[in-house]
Amino acid sequence: MRVATIVVALAVAVAAGTACSDGGGNTRAFCDALHAGDNPLDVFDRYDPTNLATARDQLQRGVDRMKDLEKAAPSEIRGDIAVLVDVGSKLVDALDPAAGAKPAPDFTSDSQRVKDASAAVTGFAVDRCNVNLETPSAGPTPPNGN
């Protein structure tokens, strides 16, 4: 059950905290990608932590969504998205039944990185794409900010 606790803690950190132009990404591509798919926070929030098999699959979909956003992202936030992809991938790996009796990874050192990366990505999304990722579903933020 330690892994389930870690899953819940990391997802809460990502959701509370929170998921550029070299290498093909840019602001427009990133914003278009945000508008074209699920809010990545919603994808992470939908998993059932009591069912590790489905939780792993759902979290993998969240990581895959973040990878798509990473490809489209401008360099200014690509590293932040990479942090979220990295930590999410470690979490998915920890839930792999093949991991067996391996000790669960210690995500303590990742907490601040996730919080900082999430803040950078969600801030960029609001400021540059008019998308509030902290709402239940991504969509344009009303002009008055409400």
What does this 3D model show about the protein?
Residues 1-22 and 138-146 have low confidence and may be disordered. This protein has 146 residues and is mainly α. The protein has one domain. The protein has helices at 2-17, 27-36, 40-45, 52-72, 75-94, 111-129.
Outline the low-pLDDT stretches: 1-22, 138-146
Shape: globular
The number of strands is 0
- Sheet of most strands: none
Radius of gyration, in angstroms, nearest whole number? 15 Å
Mean pLDDT across the residues is: 77
| Percent of residues in β-strands | under 5%
Give the number of domains: 1
| SSE pattern, N- to C-terminal | HHHHHH
Helix content: 55-70%
Number of helices: 6
Question: Separation of termini?
Answer: 40 Å
Strand-pairing-aware structural class:
mainly alpha
Keywords for this entry:
146 residues; 6 helices; 0% strand; globular; disordered C terminus; disordered N terminus; 63% helix; mainly alpha
Short description:
This protein is an all-alpha fold and 146 residues long. The protein has helices spanning 2-17, 27-36, 40-45, 52-72, 75-94, 111-129. The longest helix is centred in the middle third of the chain and has 21 residues, at 52-72.
SSE inventory with pairings:
Elements: H1 2-17, H2 27-36, H3 40-45, H4 52-72, H5 75-94, H6 111-129
Helix pairs in contact: 1-5, 1-6, 2-4, 4-5, 5-6
